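pasting for ref
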Amino acid sequence: MSSFNKPYDPKEVEEKIYKLWEKSGYFDPDKLPGKRKKSFTIIMPPPNANGLLHVGHAIFVTLQDIMIRYRRMKGDKTLWLPGADHAGFETQVVFDKKLEKEGRNRFHIPREQLYKEMLDFTLTNKKNMENQLRKLGASCDWSREKFTLDENIIKIVYETFEKLKKDDLIYQGQRIVNWCSKHQTSLSNLEIKYEEKLDKLYYVKYKLVDSDDFVEVATTRPETIPADIAIAVHPKSKWNRFVNQKVINPLTKKEIIVLADKIVDLDFGTGALKITPFHDAVDFSVWNDHRDEIKVQPFSIIDKFGKMNEKAGVGLQGLKIKEAREKSVEFLRPTFSKEPEDYKHQVAVCYKCGSIIEPMVLDNQWFIKMTAKPKSKPDSLRDAAVKAVRKGEVKFIPKRFEKIFFYWMKNLRDWNISRQIPWGIKIPEKNTTDVFDTWFSSGQWPFATLMTTKKDDFKTFYPTDVMETGWDILFFWVARMIILGIYVTGKIPFKYVYLHGLVRDKDRQKMSKSKGNVIDPLGVVDLYGADALRMALIIGNAPGNDPIIYEEKIKGYRNFANKIWQASRFILMNTEDFNLKTKPKLKESDKKILKELSNLEKETTRLMDSFKFYTAGEKIYHYFWHTFADKIIESAKPRLKGNDEKDRQAAQYILLEILKANLKLLHPFMPFITEEIYQKIKSKGSAKLLMIEKWR
């Protein structure tokens, strides 16, 4: 019993136990013992290989490992395939910050050298990240590990691109995009966020040619007036009488046409809208619809660095946007019909740096048609995915996210997959330096991984069973995996989508470095052990809700681990002389206890099958501490010390049976301590490891 140190020290156990698991080979489904006909598969959402794991990663590791360990014990051919993501723009942002600290700028580094530096940076982080996953107890099959920049993954990404082209779903053209002037790249509609800002609303008069009449326009962007090529008015506005007439641009003095379009909001501003196609998505649409009337080619007056170009005219050229706005107000003041008003509105910003997004028209951008029918299939990319969810082929946990999915799909636009950064998978076209949007490659992750591992993996493990990830990337990633999975393979990529929330502290604040409330999962593991962290992350963490995590909670489950340790120590000390082949005669009270234990096993199994891990973990916790340790063990102590040998054996039998059953039930949640104790009590004929013990 000397190895049962007092109290439990996870540092002495966890690394040793993980090596035992890895050495066994049982993370590989092909090496699991027994006949396992049914497969169970989870493809790990590949963590971004650009830094250390954070507490959000610890949640997905815990949840997925619980599912995998449970299914492995139930006898399934269980695969958890790990991987890492080059993460495109996300990694570019992190690396840019690294360069800034070094006093360097990526725009001054040769492209090939920059790519090599970023690859080395990513591969180093990838290796560190894999070791961190091990520390958290991830029982994934490292022999099948994949990276989004593996050559065979890139080959599949290119094949999908070519398939989309053949189906006439890819087009290249001049389109308005969301441009981040800091990071010098376009962003998809999902990569921008909206922040409320207070600006001024300016009321500007556009005088009619050869008349004192005018059309009044309300705008927050007077600096873009030099690029106006028309005025659109709502057909029911008072300005409708001027349709097809010309007005004078108050800054350039050029004549521009007035046209009618219902897209103009009659309830906002004046009912008239200045049309600046290359600096506003709505205006771009209006220009496309009225080209025959406008007969003027739009142009841009803002460059990629957020400065006014030569087409902005004398007085504005070379100025930053904010400066140009102030200067244009000076020029326009005589045309104001009234004083500018304060105006609160939602402004698009880059989701990483917060820079205001500049709508910009770029040439040769690559887009995927999301709502057009492909040549080879009856449904559009969007409609095929929607049908799969409506039929229940893909189920969301919790179900409420189904409505959100449908809402987003209803409003789906064509997908801009071009990124103007050096880091990523290069678009395979001549004269193109752009790379694919990282979500285009990671959207193919479930089938791309299984098509590039072992020979029959795709046939055996696809479709996968569960995609577990954060609800915040439901649109970024999950929907795109469903879309591309169905399109390429003809099958759904997974049957269930389990969505966890965003980690918050005990005051329900989102964790951030600036607030100083971030919990380092690996630091916590060093202090309290991985099992304690895992329990703290699961208990009270219903799917779709934001989990609350704080140090005191983790300490509480460290105490629980010690309770398990001490209870097990007591039982083993008092059963050293017990013959495991003995079948003692049990009292009615003993039979009742075993019946209650059986009910706990059945209820836990039901909860695990229903994805209610938070409730299952809590039930086992309360049973072990408050029923087993506080009541059953305490009531057995007099029997263990008594002179009635048969009664003593019955008490020993009961304690060992309950302990063994509880170790099984706890193993998916607290794998390290349960495996360590199992190794001390396993009998002849038992499985070599608790991780492959039969669940019930």
